[in-house]
Structure formats: C-alpha cells, structure tokens
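[Help] Beginner question about ligand-bound structures

Sorry if this is basic. My supervisor gave me a protein sequence and a SMILES string for flavin-adenine dinucleotide and asked me to "get the holo structure". I don't really know what that means in practice or what format the answer should be in. Inputs are pasted below exactly as I got them.
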Amino acid sequence: MLASARIQAWRTPLRGRLFSPEDEGYDEARRVFNGMIDSRPAAIVRCAGVADVMAALGFAREAGLPVAVRGGGHGVTGSAVGEGGLVVDLSAMRSVRVDPRRRTARAEGGATWGDFDHETQAFGLATTGGIVPSTGIAGLTLGGGIGYLNRKYGLACDNLLSADVVTADGQWLTASDDENAELFWGLRGGGGNFGVVTSFEYRLHPVGTVLAGELVFPLDRAKEMLRFYRDWSSAAPDELRADATLLLGPEGPVLDIIVCWCGELEEGERVVQPLRSMSAPLLDTIAPVPYPVVQNLLTEVFRPGLRHYWKAGFMRTFSDAAIEAIVDSFADDVPSPFAAIAIEHLGGAVGRVEPQDTAFAHRHAQYSVLVLRMWQDPADSSANIAWGRRCFHAAAPFLDEGAYVNYLADEGEARVRAAYGGNYERLAALKRRYDPANRFRFNQNIPASTVS
Ligand SMILES: Cc1cc2nc3c(=O)[nH]c(=O)nc-3n(C[C@H](O)[C@H](O)[C@H](O)COP(=O)(O)OP(=O)(O)OC[C@H]3O[C@@H](n4cnc5c(N)ncnc54)[C@H](O)[C@@H]3O)c2cc1C
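Answer (accepted):
No worries, everyone starts somewhere. Holo just means with the ligand present. The predicted complex, written as structure tokens, is below.
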C-alpha cells in the first residue's frame, strides 16, 4: 500500500481526482464493464487533461508502479484497472471536436462511441466505430476497431489521422504519418502497449440515413439461412455489413441478422431483398433509419456489470461443415439468459490495406466469430464458461490461427502472439523504444524483453 504522505503529495498538482483504496468513490472508480473484474489498483488518477496524465505517469515512475489505462472500461479482461497498479483513468476526458469542413474529429481518450456519434452526427458525419455506444474509442481504435461501416470505410484505426500520446517517460508527442510514424503504425492495432493516447484525430465520412435493422429466424432454419447468408454477404457491395448471430431472444433460440447498408437507399433495398424474401422471418425491422439508431440497437443487451466470457477467432473456412458445427454447438443446451455466437462481417475496405501497413495484421479475414456469454450470478460462472468453451471448441477447426486483440481474454502468450501475427517482432521493437520497462503491461502485452 502507498504511504498516505505520498498519496497526499500526489493529489496537490492534479486538476482531476486521485482515489486511493481508503477514499470514498474508490470502489466505484475501479468498477469496469465486465462484472467479473474485482481488481484493486494502488491508486486511480482520474485525469482532467494532459497535464494530469503526465503527472500520473511521473507518480508511477517514482513509486515503481505498473500503469493501467482506462478509456471506456470495456476491455473484457479488465485491463483498465490492473491489480496493484496505478490507473490513468481518462473517463472524465470525453470531449469531441468536429471540423465539418475538413471532415475530421478530434476526440479525447476517454470518449465513448456514443459521445463520438452524438457530436459527429450533428454534422451528418461518422467513422467506423463500435456497435455499442458505451464502448471506448481508445481501446477499440488501438486494437483495430470493427463496426458497421468497416467494409466501406475500413477499420476505426484506418481512419485515424493522428494521435496525441504521453509515453512512459512522460513525454508528450504527436504520432501521424508525418511525425513519429513508426509509433503511429503501432498505435493502429498494437493495443495500449506504447503510451497513453490523450486524443485521437479521425477522418469522417458523410453518413446520414442508413438502411438497417434486424431479421430474426427460428433456430430450426438457422443452418439453411446461414448458408444463404454466407453466399449472399460474401458477394455484397462494400456498403453492406450484415452480422449473423445465434442468440437467445424472447422467442427462444434464434438466428438474428443485423443489416446496415450505408450507401444509396434504393440500391440497398435491392441488395437486401434476397435475404428478406428467402424465408419468412419472425421479425423484420429493416428500414431507412438515422445511423445512431443502428448504433443503439444493442444498447439494452449490453448492460454494464454483467459477467462476461468471450472467445473469438477469424473464420478460415465458412463451409457447410462449419455452419453445422456452430449451430449444433449453440443448440446443445443453451444456458440462459444471454448466450450468443456472432459472425461479424469483415472484408471490403478492411482487406484493401496490407497486413504490414498498420499493426492490425488480420486483413485477409472475411468474418470474425465471437462466442459470448453474459450472466449475473457468480454461481452460474462455471456452467457459462463451460458452454462458451464447448462452442468455441466446435468452431475452432474452421478458424485460422489469428485472434482479434480486442476480443482476446486472458488466453496466454501464444494467443497474444497470434493476435499481433506477423507484426509481432516489429511491435516488440517499438515496445523496446517507447516502454522498455514495460510500464504499460495491463494489456495484451508485448514484453519489451522479447528477443527478435
Ligand atoms: C459491449 C461491448 C461491445 C464491443 N463492441 C465492439 C465493436 O463493435 N467493435 C470492436 O472492434 N470491438 C468491440 N468491443 C471490444 C472493444 O474493442 C474492447 O473491449 C476495447 O478494449 C474497448 O475499449 P475501451 O477503451 O472501452 O476499453 P478499456 O477497458 O478502457 O481499455 C482496454 C485497454 O485499451 C488500452 N487503452 C484504453 N484507453 C487507452 C488510451 N487512451 N491510451 C492507451 N491505451 C488505452 C489499455 O491497454 C486498456 O487496458 C466491444 C466490447 C464490449 C464489452
């Protein structure tokens, strides 16, 4: 535990707040989205601005503490609040400034996608971002960032123009294609390994009304519909993203296909029509809607504080056999209340960037597969985790060796290497340069000591 004199000395230069374990508000401040996380950091510095971030990193160096960085607090491993570390909490730094003429936005490191969409949509603009509004822009972008616009406009990180970063030694710098370009490369897929990003500058695109909504089918038609979905979605124009999710809805287990078309509406109607007329759905809500409507479709489902199990990979072969295995594993003893296997639609612009051009290596992937469990009661943990493992095991033969760093749980070093893929050694060199003491180690960590 840190001495109270030291804590007191640290409070003085801050514009924001410091929470030590004795302080009121500490328990609230250490809570993250995943209710399974119960880490007790040595101190939490809720920063009011860049100066506080610099000060907090100075405290960590002085006390020899590892640093956790909190953006939106959605990371499933709870890395935003590392046990015994010093948390640089950016949750009070959420401003978003839009430049409608240049079609850019600069957002602080604690902003959420809800904050971001709210500000950019006032100008009819958007960029690829998370599909649940409470997710942080920071963690999501630093790991790559998939979202409904990814096939048209690339990953969130592909739309990053620059980032302001405070490095482990307390230096403030800007990273872009023109300045600190190697760091800029690493920030686009390398996770939170290199420093605290205090603000992100994004390229924006005109996105107003989209054709979007859900098509829900009973589970007994899931295999047939997934075969159709695969053939239809793999040939679709970039304006379409369609995710197919097996889940437990109010009607029982179903296949839920969420569609978002961000192009010209009439063409979208034509593209979506074959899916709509393939087999009578239980529900069809597809209609022209403002973009924030589709961004909010899952808000109620993803309530903070639930317990989470995630396991994910990229589809290698989306064969009939893969569909059989995935649907059968889901149908076998689905535990309630929220179990899902989501097939997310990649490709398009995501794949037109070379794997070595940004730190996000998995450019070839056409679909991501995410096994997801959420539950409330700790007593249900082992049943839920066992179900998740079984489903992932069934899907695994059809997945490639890679992993999406933002969907990774605590899965060991081999999986972390798989997540950074062919870019691992270059990222390790960057880590040695910017964080040789591995101060930022609460993340999908690239240890600075990695031997090339
Ligand atoms: C409900 C839900 C929905 C999701 N939807 C999507 C989705 O649509 N698309 C997608 O791609 N992913 C999605 N994810 C995964 C998401 O990308 C990761 O959980 C990501 O880490 C969230 O970022 P955050 O800032 O909220 O996380 P945090 O938990 O705050 O941070 C996670 C890690 O990111 C790093 N980090 C965070 N902020 C900073 C910063 N400012 N500077 C440096 N490092 C930082 C740190 O290493 C930190 O440990 C979702 C997750 C959840 C729980």
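A couple of things worth pointing out: The mean pLDDT is 95. The radius of gyration is 22 Å. Feel free to follow up in the thread.
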